[in-house]
Specification:
Shape: globular
Distance between the termini: 40 Å
Number of helices: 0
Strand content: over 45%
Low-confidence stretches: none
Number of strands: 11
């Protein structure tokens, strides 16, 4: 079965950095676009970044452009989200997503808190 397991979240001060990881299993990882979403308290889940199956193309939400970088290692079935210059408004639970044959799959999420 499809599994997505995120890690790397935590508490960081404004201006700091974190690197999130999502390890995938149960499907042919290299065939699929992968996405990172986030959901802040009281807000809807929003798309943060997406990367094409072989990593040749990436897209970002305007709010994170220039600060976040999505990447993937198909040999390790892993997608990453490097987050720099973090702001308090980046505080959220971050989720890894794969859309496979008409169905969305999600990880359990990892909490990112940006606070001094």
């Amino acid at each position: 079965q499809v599994q997505l397991v995120e890690s790397g979240g935590g508490l960081v001060q404004p201006g700091g950095s974190l690197r999130l990881s999502c390890v995938a299993s149960g499907f042919i990882f290299s065939r699929y676009l992968m996405r990172w979403y986030r959901q802040a308290p009281g807000k809807e889940r929003e798309l943060v970044a997406a990367i094409a199956n072989f990593g040749g193309s990436a897209n970002y939400a305007d709010s994170v452009k220039g600060r976040f970088t999505i990447s993937r290692d198909n040999a390790k079935n892993t997608v990453y989200l490097q987050m720099n210059s973090l702001k308090p408004e980046d505080t959220a639970v971050y989720y890894c997503n794969a859309h496979i044959v008409g169905s969305d799959y999600w990880g359990q999420g990892t909490q990112v808190t940006v606070s001094s």
